[in-house]
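Curious: can you check?
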Amino acid sequence: MKYMNLICLAGLIAASCEKPPAAVQDQPPAARVVQTEANSRQQKAQKATQADALLGKGEGHAASGNHDKSLESYKAAVRANPFSGPANLALGRELLRRGELDDAESALSQALRMDPNQTATLVALGNVYAAKDLWAQAEAYYRSALSGNPKDSVAGHKVGLALAQQGKLPEAVDALKAVVAAHPGLAEVLSDLGLVYSLQERRDEAISAYKEALAAAPDVAETHARLGTVYMGAGRLDEAEAEFAEALRLDGKHSAARVGLGRVKLERGQTEQAAEAFRQAVDLDRRSVQAHYYLGLALEHLGKTEEAAAEYGQASQIDNSSVDAPLALGRLLASQGKYEEAEKHFYTAVQRDENSAGARLAHGKNLTRLGRREDAIKHLQKALELDPSIEEARKALDELK
């Protein structure tokens, strides 16, 4: 007995230090091993059952919109059974929904270790990387999901979106068309196919894809707004206005549709009404680059230059990849003779897109005004290299020689 007490004090056994029951002591060694394994299986089964119950509870909370409660339940499910793939998947998805990307990645990686071929987990991990703007990594996970389940429409759709985000538009079209061919009538996929077509200036194909999407799901405001934008680009103002109005009827808080209506009014010379539409769009979405940019344009047309400059500046700050906003701000300042101040905005525009012929032209002309002849020539030559049809750049170069 004293030896048992010493062992207990040394902490060398994990179970209770009491003597095992007589029935167990009397068992032969092999039987004891079998009994231990049976107990272990029973404990694992109990943990799995507990985790499943907590997972179901969390899913119920999520269905009712109580995401705080669902998060608590998912965490409890993982604590009960850290090796539960479904519990880790549910926890990862909820953390992703909340924008807690690193924690989401950790939970989803654990889920993937439990089942390396789980399509839903692979897609969810792709979504984590997409949220981080790491589109190549996102694409890799989506493709892994698709290779395990080639008919999965979600994975195929995500591959197409990831390709589009990386500027691989022809490949994106092929990927999305493959999903549509395998699953006709998927409105969301058709709408995204239309968007990629529009990015390629393939307007007729974009319009066709959007109309097909609306035939499958006529009450989707986003698709109406996208179709309106294509009509706008084609100069079909009446049709554009009708689509933007329908989008707003379906969703009165759709900022992009409000911007679209404002653009129609601006094109028709109804500048005050356009400015009001853009203000409403800004109120709906303070982070909308388009709303701020077009509000600046309308205000500039109305002669409200200080307010216009503020809106251009806001658009440029929100989207540090935007070329149009700093370019517009630079032009506005240059028109007021503020060439030094304009210079930093033209410089920003060129830095954001070195292959923008318009930015190179504007920068070159402003450098000419500042007397920086050699720098001006460099930018004007680059503008002509990018777009040989820019006669304004050719003329400016001739004047400098």
Notes: Residues 1-18 have pLDDT under 50 and may be disordered. The chain has 23 helices and no strands.
